[in-house]
Amino acid sequence: MISVYRPTLTPAPATTLMRLPLTTLVTVALLAALAIAPARADDLAGAQRLWLAGQKAQAVEQVEQALTRTPEDLQLRFALGVMRMELGERDKAKSIFTRLTQDFPDLADPYNNLAVLHAAAGELDEAQAALQQALRLQPEHAQAQENLGDVLMRLALRAYQRAQKLSLAPSELLSSKISRTLALTGTLNKTR
Questions:
Q1: How far apart are CA 79 and CA 26, in angstroms?
Q2: Which residues neighbour 12 within 8 Å (Cβ) at sequence distance 6 or greater?
Q3: For residue 68, what is the domain's CATH number?
Q4: How far apart, in whole angstroms, are the C-alpha atoms of residue 36 and residue 62?
Q5: With contact defined as beta carbons under 8 Å apart, do 72 and 103 qualify?
Q6: What burial letters (b/e) apply to 127-155, b meaning 16+ CB within 10 Å?
Q7: Number of neighbouring beta carbons within 10 Å of residue 8
């Protein structure tokens, strides 16, 4: 299960590919951003209060208004991307994180979050590429490492299933690998 990165008090944010705990993710992302600039901290703190009060549309609006004043602000942009993810607006979130990877190509976290969105859409090859880039930038990025493992497991399952389909005769070995991989990926999905 691929997860959304929950940023710490650093300017670099990201995600775990399968688990998207809504309130927790946005809360942590917003708290991380509070450590930066006072004006931005006020905007993010206000957005966080709105979000936690269930006023998610108003929280997004507050971040968007703050971005009109500081459109290149990394923390605000990242928080907006996380909010869009949490709201299920994956296309908008994907656009935000793609742009962050272009504007801040040395940060691993936007690549990790972009990979989460790719994986959720079944775009496993794109998710793998994004995670590999995140790990080139930050090899010790624990969440990206875990996410890459999840994606590789799903890619292995896909390859086993294709091999079984292309085989002239059913293979017990492939059937066993498929069963074990399905069991493992099912267990991962249930524990997250």
A1: 7
A2: 107, 108, 109, 138
A3: 1.25.40.10
A4: 17
A5: yes
A6: bbbbbebbbebbeebebbebbbebbeebe
A7: 11
What is the SS3 assignment for 71? coil
**Total number of residues shown for the chain:** 192
Is the pTM for the entire model greater than 0.85?
no
pLDDT tens column, 30-59: 444 444 445 567 888 889 899 999 999 999
122: left (phi over 0), alpha (psi -120 to 50) or beta: left
Domain count for the chain: 1
Per-residue pLDDT tens over the stretch 92-114 = 999 999 999 999 999 999 999 99
Tokens of 112: 């990790």
* CA atoms of 124 and 136, how far apart (whole Å): 18
Phi and psi, residue 168, nearest 5°: -70, -35
Q: Which range marks the domain in which residue 26 is found?
A: 3-191
**Tokens 């928080």 belong to residue:** 79
CA dihedral over 60, 94, 103, 10, signed as positive or negative = positive
Alpha helix stretches (DSSP H) within the chain: 22-34, 38-52, 56-69, 74-86, 90-103, 108-120, 124-137, 142-166, 172-191
